[in-house]
């Protein structure tokens, strides 16, 4: 018998990916899967790719349904996690995939989300310095936003090493449509997104302050793009160097930061990340160089937004919280073609 876990929001995209990972996890047993409008339906009705749950019915999302779990994953819309988690028993471990407990500054929360500030939990990005131990010591963890994972992993070490200036960072990141969740708004219909790439929420996206908080940037321009693919994020981060630097030096910073990390790979010099190579995995692929003309540092990263950007990252945090091997139930190997 493994650790008893529940997934709230199991009918959604992130919840479905959590169910898939839990089905293949050697140390976790699913005891409850909940939905909102889908409550009462079979899991395989909404996730026909998950026959492991042929006998499981989605229950309503309330405390009683989740009470038997030792650890609860919350994959709910922003704003729905705080009230539910406040009602769960104090001893229940929680990993929240939403944004409710990520931001440490109440004023930033008010500006980007509004409503009462729910408070910050331990931030769920194990690759940040010192964070792995903090997650392992925590009962409540706020998993990192998808664009934030893709942007922070290349950027944070460059700022921490003093090589990239924190006050001149530009991020342009393209996401697959599943990043917007399952409740497909008309602009996410296949007929609208195919043959199109477009920018949205330019300069106003709520992940900009989270990237600043996680990566240590002070001034940031963030432009998200919607790309015609179901999964994946490709982030391009450019930053002004603090002094003279070289491709070899910036590569060395990332190589040292991620030596031994099971899910972060600095690609060989000259190879640039592809989202397709991280599809279905918990991997993040990185590359960095210095633009010979502008002198700017240019780093690119690729993740699966539902993997390292959501469910994979959440399972990685849960493994740490439960004292399980950090990589249990996860893989850096993608699915191709
Ligand atoms: N998609 C992604 O790439 C990522 C998502 N996340 C975060 O994960 C969370 C879930 O996202 P995602 O799976 O994409 O979203 P979906 O829209 O695909 O799923 C939302 C889930 O929440 C349920 N739900 C909807 N409204 C309510 C409500 N008022 N109260 C309780 N449950 C409700 C839905 O139930 P039903 O369908 O039955 O109505 C569904 O199970 C969000 O906070 C999101 O920001 C984080 C990183 C990446
Ligand atoms: C393509 C698309 O619409 N993406 C979403 C990302 C949302 C998401 O997953 O948010 P968290 O990572 O904060 O939970 C957006 O831009 O709002």
From TrEMBL:
Broad class of enzyme this protein falls into: oxidoreductase
Taxonomy, superkingdom: Bacteria
Its EC number(s): 1.2.1.38
GO-annotated cellular components: cytoplasm
UniProt-listed InterPro entries: AGPR, AGPR_dimerisation_dom, AGPR_type-1, NAD(P)-bd_dom_sf, Semialdehyde_DH_NAD-bd
Keyword Oxidoreductase: yes
Major location category of this protein: cytoplasm
Catalysis performed (reactions): N-acetyl-L-glutamate 5-semialdehyde + phosphate + NADP(+) = N-acetyl-L-glutamyl 5-phosphate + NADPH + H(+)
Semialdehyde dehydrogenase NAD-binding domain span: 4-136
Key words, A-Z: Amino-acid biosynthesis, Arginine biosynthesis, Cytoplasm, NADP, Oxidoreductase
Location of the active site: 146
NCBIfam families: argC
Family note: Belongs to the NAGSA dehydrogenase family. Type 1 subfamily.
Protein name: N-acetyl-gamma-glutamyl-phosphate reductase
Originating organism: Actinocatenispora rupis
Name of the coding gene: argC
């Amino acid at each position: 018998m493994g650790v008893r876990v529940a997934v709230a929001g199991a009918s959604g995209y992130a919840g479905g990916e959590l169910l898939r990972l839990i089905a293949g996890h050697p140390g976790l047993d699913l005891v409850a899967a909940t939905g909102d409008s889908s409550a009462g339906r079979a899991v395989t009705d909404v996730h026909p790719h998950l026959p492991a749950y042929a006998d499981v019915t989605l229950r309503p999302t309330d405390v009683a349904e989740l009470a038997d779990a030792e650890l609860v994953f919350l994959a709910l819309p922003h704003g729905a996690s705080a009230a539910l988690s406040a009602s769960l028993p104090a001893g229940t471990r929680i990993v929240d995939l939403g944004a409710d407990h990520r931001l440490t500054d109440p004023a930033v929360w008010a500006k980007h989300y509004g409503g009462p500030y729910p408070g910050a939990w331990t931030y769920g990005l194990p690759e940040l310095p010192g964070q792995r131990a903090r997650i392992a010591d925590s009962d409540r963890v706020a998993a990192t936003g998808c664009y934030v994972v893709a942007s922070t992993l290349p950027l944070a070490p460059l700022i921490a090493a003093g090589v990239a200036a924190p006050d001149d960072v530009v991020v342009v990141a393209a996401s697959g449509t599943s990043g917007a969740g399952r409740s497909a708004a008309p602009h996410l219909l296949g007929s609208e997104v195919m043959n199109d790439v477009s920018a949205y929420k330019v300069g106003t996206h709520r992940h900009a302050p989270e990237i600043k908080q996680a990566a240590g940037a002070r001034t940031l321009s963030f432009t998200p793009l919607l790309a015609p693919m179901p999964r994946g994020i490709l982030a391009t981060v450019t930053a002004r160097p603090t002094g003279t630097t070289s491709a070899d030096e910036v590569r060395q910073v990332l190589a040292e930061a991620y030596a031994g990390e099971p899910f972060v790979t600095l690609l060989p010099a000259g190879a640039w990340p592809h989202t397709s190579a991280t599809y279905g995995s918990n991997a993040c692929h990185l590359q960095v160089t210095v633009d010979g003309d502008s002198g700017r540092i240019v780093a690119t990263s690729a993740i699966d937004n539902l993997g390292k950007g959501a469910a994979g990252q959440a399972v990685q945090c849960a493994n740490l919280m439960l004292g399980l091997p950090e990589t249990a139930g996860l893989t850096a190997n993608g699915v191709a073609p």
